Amino acid sequence: MAFTQRQRKQFADAAQSLKLYRRAELTAEESDKPLIEELYVDPLPSDGIFNAMMRPNTTFLIGRKGTGKSTIFQRSQHEIRKQSHSVSAYLDIKTIYESSEVDPALLQKAEASQGALPAEGIRRIFLYEEFVKTVLVEIRTELKKQIEKSFLSRLKERLLSSSDEVFEALDDLIESSRASLFNDVTGIKIVGKKEGNKSEASSNAKASATISADATGIPKVAADGSVAAASSLSVQNENEFSQILLRSFNIKTIINELGEILQGFGIKRLYVFIDDFSELPEDAMSIFVDSILAPLNNWSQELIKFKIAAYPGRIYYGQIDKTKIDEAFLDPFKLYGSNDVSNMEEKAIDFTSRLIDTRLNHFCNAGLSDFVEANPDEVAKLLFFATMGNPRNLGHILSNLYESHIVYGKFIGARAVRDAARKYYEEKIEPFFGIQKFRHERFDERLSIYSLKELLELLVSRARELRRYRESSLMQKISGRPPTSHFHVVSELESVLSTLELNFFLTKYFEMKDRDGRKVSVFALNFGLCEKHSIEFGRPVGLREFRLYFVERIFDSSHIIRSYLHANQEIKCADCEAIFGLDKLESLKLYRMRCPECGTGICKVTNLSKKYEAILRDVNPELLLPTTELGILETLYGERRDLMAAEIAEDLDCSYQLVGKRGKIMEQKGLVDRLMEQKRRKFRLTELAMKEYFDGNESRRLDVGES
Length: 707
Hints:
Blueprint: H1 5-19, H2 36-39, H3 48-54, E1 59-62, H4 69-80, E2 86-92, H5 93-99, H6 104-112, H7 119-159, H8 163-179, H9 185-196, E3 205-213, E4 219-229, H10 237-249, H11 251-263, E5 269-275, H12 282-299, E6 304-310, E7 326-329, H13 332-336, H14 341-364, H15 376-387, H16 391-404, H17 414-429, H18 432-436, H19 443-465, H20 473-476, E8 486-490, H21 498-502, E9 506-513, E10 519-525, H22 527-532, H23 558-568, E11 569-573, E12 579-580, H24 585-590, E13 603-607, H25 613-617, H26 627-639, E14 643-644, H27 645-652, H28 656-668, E15 672-677, E16 680-685, H29 687-694
Parallel strand pairs: 1-6, 1-7, 2-5, 5-6
Antiparallel strand pairs: 3-4, 8-10, 9-10, 11-12, 11-13, 14-16, 15-16
Helix pairs in contact: 1-14, 1-16, 3-4, 7-8, 7-10, 7-12, 8-11, 9-10, 10-12, 14-15, 15-16, 15-17, 16-17, 19-23, 26-27, 27-28
C-alpha cells in the first residue's frame, strides 16, 4: 500500500476542509483553536484580496458559490478581533429573510379593514418590516458577541465598569428599534396609488406618516410627520414601502446612539459582513438596499463599513454610489485576466496548487506531489481545469479522488482527475434542470430557466460537431482530436449565459478581440461535461498561431445565441398580455418598458422553451416545491444515504436551522422521513419522493446524442 491508514484519513480531512460551507469554522481538533490564519490562502500575491477587505471602505466581494467568500470573511473578522478600535458583525441575510414570518391572524384583521390592500400586498409589507427589524437586531446581537469575546477584559480595565453596562446600553438600543410599530397598510395603499399615477415626481417629494397602533394591534396612520424622498421618475410601490420603513425606524437616531456607545469604549468602526446577498429575491434585495444598506452606508459617516458577498450579475446597488465603494472579484478571468490567456492560466494554476499544498501540508504533512504518480504540474493544471480554481469544487474533486484512489493506496494520475471531474459534474451539476422543473414558480418563470437547457444543448452539440472539423488550415495542423471546449460570443450577448455560468455549466475564460476586431467573451464548457461528451479541453500548443485559437471563426457561437433568442424569447405585457417582437425591445426600453397597447402595464422579456414546454406542462402542480426543499431532495438523492441537517446544509450553502425547519414541512408531505439515530436527527428520502421526482426523470441529463 502506498499510503498508511493515517495518511488516507488525513487526505480525506484536507478535502473535507475545502468543502466546508459558509461559516463553518476551521478549528484544530485537539484545542478548538481557530486555524483560519494558518490555512488561509489568498488568490492574489501578498494577500491582495485580504488587504482589500481590511480597508475601511464598503466592499462587494463578488464570486460564484464556493469561491471562498465566507473564508475571506472569516480571515478578515479574525484580524479585526486583534484591533483595538474596530468590531465586526456577521449577517446571513438569506436565513434572516427565510425566517421572517407574518402572523396570519394579524393579516386577517388588517385585510378586513375597509380600503386595505389585499392579503398578498399586506403580507409583503409586513414581511419587509420584519425583515428590516430582524437585520437591525442581528447587527446588535452579533456586536454583543464580538464585544464579549474580544474586548471585555480591555473595556473593564479602561472604564472600571462591568460589561453589563455595555450590554445594557446595547439592549436599550435594540429595544428602541423594536418600539416602532407596523405601518398602516391602508395609508400605504393610498400613497402608493397617488404616486403611481404620476408620470414624473419632483426631486424632493414628501410622504406623511405617523405610526401608531390600537389595542388589537392593527396599525393606524395619522397625517403628521414627513419623509423626504428623492425621485425623478414615477415612484414604485416598493420604493414607497422602503421610505416609510426608513421613517418608522428612524435609522439616523439609531446610528448616532450606536456610535456614541461604541466611541465611548474607543471603538471607531463597525464592519458588517453580509453573506448570501444575491440569494435574496429581487424585490427583497431592493427593499434591503433601499431601506438598510444605502442609508447606513451614506449616513453613518465613517462608523459603519459593509463587506458584502455577492454573485456576479446578481447585485442591486440602489442609491449606493459605486464610485465610493470597492469591488473584489474571485472568478479567474476577473482575478488574473488582464494580460493574456497563458498568463491567466499560470496565475490560476499557481493559486490552485498553493491552496492544495497548504491544506495537505497542514493535515498530512505532505504536498500534492506526494500523492501523485508522475508529473504533479500536469495534475495541478487538470485540477484547475476541473474546478476553475473554485475551493469548494476542488474539495469535491479531491473527495472523489480519495474514494477512487487514495483510500485504496493508489497514486493520483491525469486519468483519475478526469474521472473525478466527470463524476462531480454528473452528480452535482448536470441534474440542475431535472429538479428545476419542480420549482415553485410561475410557469413562465420555470420555462425561462428551462429554456437555458435547450441553449446549453445547442452549445455542447456544436462543440461535438467541431471535433471532426478539418476545413481550416489551422485545424489541419492539429494532430488527433482538436480541443473544442471553448467558444466565444460578442460581449453584448454574454449576459444570456450568466445563469449557466452561475451553475458551473460554463465559465467566462477571457476577453479578446476576434478576427474582425470585435470585443468578444471567451467561455469554457465545464471540464467534467467535456469528459462525459468526449470533448477535448483547452487549446493546442507549440505554434505561434495557436495563441488566438479561442477566437477562430469556427468557435464564434454568437449566431447560436441569436437564433436561440429569436426562437425562444418574447416580450409580454404583465397587465394586458400583449406580445411584441424582439425588434421592439430597444424602443420599449426608451419608455422604461411601458406597454404601448394599454399604456399602464410593464413589458417583460421572457425566455420560452418550445422543445421542453410540453414536459413542463405535464408536471403536476402539487409537486412544485420551493428551491430549498428541492435542494434537500436532490442532496439526499445524490448521497444515497441518511443525512443530518448540517450535512445537507453544507451541500446547499444554507444554515442547518433552515434545513431542519423545511424538513418538518417535507415530512408532513411524505417526501422525507426524520429519523433518530444515536440521539441525532437524520433525513431519509421516501419512496414517494423517489417515484415523483427522480424515477424516469430524463430531464436530469442533457439531450445531445451519444458521445
